[in-house]
Specification:
By secondary structure, the protein is α/β, with parallel strands linked by helices. Helix content is 61%, strand content 10%. Among the domains are: 79 residues, Transcription Factor, Ets-1 (DNA polymerase, domain 1, Orthogonal Bundle); 182 residues, 2-Layer Sandwich (Alpha-Beta Plaits); 201 residues, 3-Layer(aba) Sandwich (Rossmann fold); 58 residues; 104 residues, Winged helix-like DNA-binding domain superfamily/Winged helix DNA-binding domain (Arc Repressor Mutant, subunit A). Strands 1, 2, 3, 4, 5, 6, 7 and 8 form an eight-stranded mixed beta sheet that branches.
Length: 1132
């Protein structure tokens, strides 16, 4: 029995090609299942019922007659006939309409019209079936077809366009039969839809498609001229340069708010290959393939000594096989070798020698307008390059290319088998003839799509090239089977994925050296898994998405970063991989909902499959190489080979189905794996969020954020807590909701401080919102303390020291009122910090010392996670600065050592940054130790870059810039300091801004830019008056005096006034070290003006006060200066 005849008798001829392509004969028919029919693309329930009834009749021995009995259908389990659930997917929709059918109907008899419509529909159906599209509906004189459902291919847009052109040609061929001017219009559009929901009843049942794409295809059809194909923007992007197109511009289309751009398809382009057609722009420079390219080059070099080589180049789709062969070609001078390229096609797997014919037509430079004579002349010219006996071989090649010779050559009187044998010999001889002239590089691309006859030729060539100067490169995907590897002249080369480093380098090339934001780069690298095509398409998608804007030679985010979407150019390919597993696709979708990795145990709890069915489904997924397995069930862990495949599987689920799966997963984890909920609460939080169970989600996001903060994983903590705030948006306004938000906002403050800065708007907003909620709910003082601390830090960071001091006093007062030792400790520390910065060093020191006296490591180490830094380490760091300023340099160093030692007992990165920047680097600078400043600056910069500590990174840059200038590289130092100060301003961090300006001024002065340095110092003095941050005020005045004296025209009187101001401020603050510096500067000025007695009387008592640190640079300089003025002052 012939299957095609059987299908035609059933009225289902449109499925004939699909049945033949899948080798379904009469013997196989009886074993077909519902899943098989769905996999074949038969989604119409009515068609499947008709097929199953006929198959049942075959089993009963009823032959090929279509069975109609209800008993035959009743024998089939109706539940097995259900098509897949509705799902989201990218679809290319084609709408074909017969032009002026109403007029035709008025001129013909109704029976003739019916016959004509059947012929028209059959012709269109054949064109669609040829490219494996799916006819969704016949609508009178219209035909609606889907490409990409129920089974996707990697090139649906191309298939649809080819089918559209084929439909136009097919209708044209009907004209002679009906003696009528038959014409069609074709519209094609691509976009996201929801497809697959059953609507209607009985024979009228169909699968609906929801979305704008079908409507757009129909509207585009109405724009088309008769016998033409019009495509949408998305379709045009997907087909690249495969077709010649005419731009129709933007069209106003009913039902669409914005104009829609459209293109008319002229015909297939003359691009040499699919690769060139789909990559019309300049190729991305080859990255990470140096070793593979070198191997190809060695084999190519060996061929020049008549040692033919074959390279089997294999790798998954998008891995870069074609790109690598192009790189080899680019390395060679085209005038020194002959290039032959054969491209196998998924549309011609049953077309004998199609890759060879296609190459010959290109090599001979056939044009569309060439007549037979012109083609024969060009073919003769081509063959003359490889043989002197052109006349003998021309009949064979003309027959191969279907060019009538008109008696120009002797007729071939050969049986088909003999003709094919001679043809293969002639083709192999042609390659040998070309190789006798100069080396040949012959490429067979995409051999997994090769037709059987071309395969036979290829096997002959592999043997023939052994003794010829020919390099034969054969590319294919891993699923292709062959037996060529055993030959001594054959080399196998498998392309693996790119390393992370190479992937980043490729991204850098694609962005023309403009850096991407770190979080964007991380997403691109994570999602693309080292597959070059994925990297290229996702990077281009990001650059074109509007998510980024250019700024100073880099890209920055234009707004919040959403998860990066799968590029339209990859959608079909990824969906096709999943659709090839149609019977087990749901298992892949559930696995995708779990994550990139999923365990057998969890999957088994939520899938409806029995154990043996689940084992079989997972085995199928493994065989397809979509997932990898570690271990054996029930302990097995499965992982998707590609992140984008996982995402495609997940995105295909409808939102309602996703919610059901996530709810089941969350419940299963809570009930069966409670330890996972404890160790990884973010997993449960994610599932509850996606399930739409917001309140439970918020609770787990809070736990996840708190756990991450305790590990100093601040970026992760912020991410979890922001997810919690997002989930809160779907909870109605109630007291319970406010309580949840208060907990989240309170937890959010500390990691924001660490990463964004104490004065960042985000930090302030979190604390302000928490305070508002705390007051609204009347929560306890214990809840108030972290919020009050956050408000203090926000005010202090913003340079509002008066308000900051009040908040610190309020904090301490509340702590004392409640006799809370831990909070008293924090209160004393922040009050001491505030007092020290406004210049009350003695009071500040007393408060810090009280705080340190209260500190108990066993009880108070955890405060670091509630208040941003360890209270002991932070207190000691600030105390070291106070002690140095107060004139105790040795005790300052000892205290700094204690602070550093305290860090060794902690794993808290923000505390480390705090101590390095505000403790160690600051003290080293005050001591004028440039090498130590550089050491600490490098340490805090490295720490901050690794852990995203934005504030400390800015401070590290400022200190590093100062150290560079002090060590003799002023040109490098100024930009670094400017960058650091700019980052502080961007984070609304004004704390220590006057101090930073003093470092900047010193560096400018070293660069010979004294006028600019004086302006920086003037700005710093103004900031002191504005913010009341006075601890470095004396040094600002002193430095101003120093620089006034270094001008081309020194201003001694103004310098003296500055020194006097510095001394007065230092004395008022008890800053003995700054008083010593200012007194030494003034004494030096007086000495230079002959006032040695006054200089001695000024400096001697200040120097005499010191009882430690006599070997430090400041005291050494003072002692030498005293000796100098004493020698010149006999009364001293």
């Amino acid at each position: 029995m012939d299957v095609g005849t059987w299908l035609r008798d059933l009225g289902l001829a449109q499925y004939e090609q699909e049945f033949r392509a899948n080798d379904i004969d009469a013997e196989v028919l009886a074993d077909l299942t519902a899943e098989d029919l769905i996999a074949l693309g038969i989604t119409s329930v009515g068609h499947r019922r008709r097929l199953f009834a006929a198959i049942a009749a075959l089993r009963d021995g009823a032959g090929s007659a279509p069975a109609r009995s209800s008993q035959a259908f009743a024998a089939v389990d109706v539940t097995t006939l259900a098509a897949p659930d509705a799902e989201r997917r990218q679809l290319t929709v084609m709408f074909v309409d017969l032009v002026d059918s109403t007029a035709l109907a008025s001129r013909l008899d109704p029976e003739e019209v019916s016959d004509l419509l059947r012929a028209y529909q059959s012709a269109v159906a054949a064109a669609i079936a040829r490219y494996e599209g799916h006819i969704a509906k016949y609508m009178g004189d219209g035909v609606l077809a889907y490409f990409g459902y129920p089974r996707a291919h990697e090139d649906e847009a191309e298939r649809a366009v080819r089918a559209g052109l084929a439909a136009v040609e097919a209708i044209h061929s009907l004209k002679p039969k009906y003696d009528l001017s038959l014409e069609v219009r074709v519209g094609i559009a691509t976009g996201g839809v929801v497809v697959g929901e059953l609507i209607g009843a009985g024979e009228a049942q169909e699968r609906s498609v929801v979305g704008q794409t079908p409507n757009l295809a129909a509207r585009l059809q109405s724009l088309a001229e008769p016998n033409s194909v019009v495509i949408s923007r998305n379709t045009r992007r997907l087909v690249g340069g495969l077709f010649d197109l005419a731009d129709l511009g933007s069209q106003h289309i009913k039902g669409f708010a914005q104009p829609v751009r459209a293109w008319r398809v002229i015909g297939e382009s003359q691009a040499e290959s699919r690769f060139e057609a789909l990559h019309p722009a300049a190729l991305t420079p080859l990255v990470g393939r140096e070793e593979e390219l070198a191997l190809l080059q060695r084999r190519w070099d060996e061929t020049r000594d008549d040692e033919g080589q074959v390279v089997l180049l294999s790798g998954e789709p998008g891995i870069g096989k074609s790109r690598l062969t192009r790189a080899l070609q680019q390395r060679s001078d085209e005038s020194t070798y002959t290039r032959i390229i054969h491209f196998c096609s998924p549309y011609h797997v049953h077309s004998a020698l199609h890759p060879i014919i296609d190459h010959l037509q290109r090599a001979a430079r056939f044009d569309r307008d060439d007549n037979d004579e012109r083609k024969l002349a060009k073919l003769e010219e081509l063959l003359a390059l490889s043989t002197q006996n052109v006349t003998e071989v021309m009949p064979i090649f003309a027959a191969l290319l279907s060019i009538p010779s008109g008696g120009r050559y002797p007729q071939l009187q050969l049986a088909p088998e003999e003709l094919m044998s001679k043809t293969l010999d002639a083709l192999a001889d042609q390659v040998e003839g070309l190789a006798r002239r100069r080396p040949v590089l012959e490429l067979f691309e995409d051999v997994h799509w090769i037709d059987p006859t071309s395969f036979e030729l290829l096997e002959r060539l592999i043997e023939r090239v052994r003794s010829l100067p020919v390099l034969l490169v054969i590319t294919f995907r891993p699923e292709f089977k062959h037996s060529w590897s055993g030959h001594p002249h054959v080399t196998s080369l498998t392309l693996n994925r790119l390393s992370r480093k190479s992937g980043c380098a490729m991204i850098d090339r694609l962005t023309a050296g403009k850096t991407l934001p770190t979080e964007v780069l991380q997403q691109v690298v994570a999602k693309t898994d080292g597959v070059p095509l994925f990297i290229e398409e996702l990077t281009k998608n990001v650059l074109e998405s509007g998510l980024l804007r250019e700024e100073s030679g880099s890209y920055v985010l234009a707004g919040p970063l959403p998860p990066l979407a799968i590029p339209a150019t990859l959608q079909d390919s990824l969906t096709a991989r999943l659709d090839r597993l149609m019977p087990v696709k749901e298992v892949a979708q559930i696995g995708a909902a779990i994550g990139r990795e999923f365990s057998y145990e969890l999957l088994a709890l939520v899938t409806p499959l029995r154990e043996n069915e689940l084992h079989g489904a997972l085995a199928r997924l493994e065989e397809s190489q979509l997932v990898y397995r570690r271990g054996t069930p029930p302990q097995a862990i499965f992982a998707f080979k590609h992140a984008l495949v996982q995402e495609a599987a997940y995105e295909s689920l409808l939102r309602s189905k996703r919610q059901q799966i996530h709810a089941a997963l969350a419940q299963a984890i809570e009930e069966h794996f409670p330890e996972k909920g404890t160790a990884q609460p973010e997993v449960l939080a994610h599932h509850y969020s996606e399930a739409g169970l917001a309140e439970k989600a918020v609770g787990y996001w809070l736990k996840a954020g708190q756990q991450a903060a305790e590990l100093s994983a601040n970026a992760e903590a912020i991410g979890h807590l922001m997810n919690g705030l997002e989930a809160l948006k779907s909870i109605p306004e109630t007291r319970r909701r406010d309580e949840l938000e208060l907990d989240v906002q309170t937890a959010l403050g500390m990691p924001l401080m660490a990463t964004k800065g104490y004065g960042a708007p985000e930090t302030g907003a979190a604390h302000a919102r928490a305070q508002e909620l705390c007051e609204r709910l009347g929560r306890s003082q214990q809840q108030h303390f972290p919020i009050l601390y956050g408000q203090w830090a926000y005010r202090a960071a913003g340079g509002e020291w008066s308000k900051g001091r009040q908040l610190a006093e309020d904090f301490l007062g509340r702590a004392e009122l409640h006799a809370d030792r831990a909070m008293k400790l924090v209160g004393h520390r922040i009050l001491g910090f505030s007092l020290a910065h406004i210049g009350d060093l003695l009071a500040g020191r007393e408060q810090i010392e009280q705080a340190l006296a209260l500190y108990d490591p066993g009880q108070h180490r955890s405060l670091a996670f509630r208040f941003g830094q360890d209270q002991r380490a932070a207190g000691l760091a600030i105390l070291s600065m106070i002690l140095w300023l107060s004139g105790f340099p040795e005790r300052a160093s000892e205290t700094m050592d204690r602070a550093t030692k305290a860090l060794e007992e902690l794993n808290h990165f923000n505390s480390r940054g705090y101590v390095l920047a505000w403790g160690a680097a600051t003290l080293a600078h005050l001591r004028r130790d440039a090498a130590a400043v550089r050491l600490h600056a490098d340490a805090v910069t490295s720490l901050s870059e690794e852990h995203g500590l934005r504030l400390w990174l800015a401070h590290g840059k400022i200190f590093r810039g100062w150290a560079s200038g002090a060590q003799g590289s002023p040109s490098e130092s100024v930009p670094q300091i400017l960058e650091g100060m700019a980052e502080c301003r961007a984070a609304r961090h004004r704390m220590r801004a006057p101090y930073h300006l003093s470092l900047f001024a010193e560096t400018l002065h070293r660069s010979g830019k004294t006028d600019e340095a004086l302006r920086a110092l003037a700005e710093a003095v103004m900031l002191v008056a504005e913010t009341e941050e006075r601890w470095c005020e004396a040094e600002l005045h002193r430095l101003t005096g120093e620089m006034l004296l270094s001008l081309t025209t020194p201003n001694a009187s103004k310098a003296e006034a500055c020194y006097r101001s510095a001394i007065a401020v230092a004395q008022a603050q008890g800053a003995k070290m700054l008083e010593l510096r200012a007194a030494a500067s003034l004494a030096r000025l007086w000495r230079d003006h002959g006032k040695c007695a006054e200089a001695y009387e000024l400096l001697a008592p200040v120097y005499g006060w010191f009882s430690e640190g006599l070997g430090t640079s400041d005291l050494n300089e003072a002692r030498l200066l005293l000796a100098t003025v004493a020698d010149e002052n006999p009364s001293a």
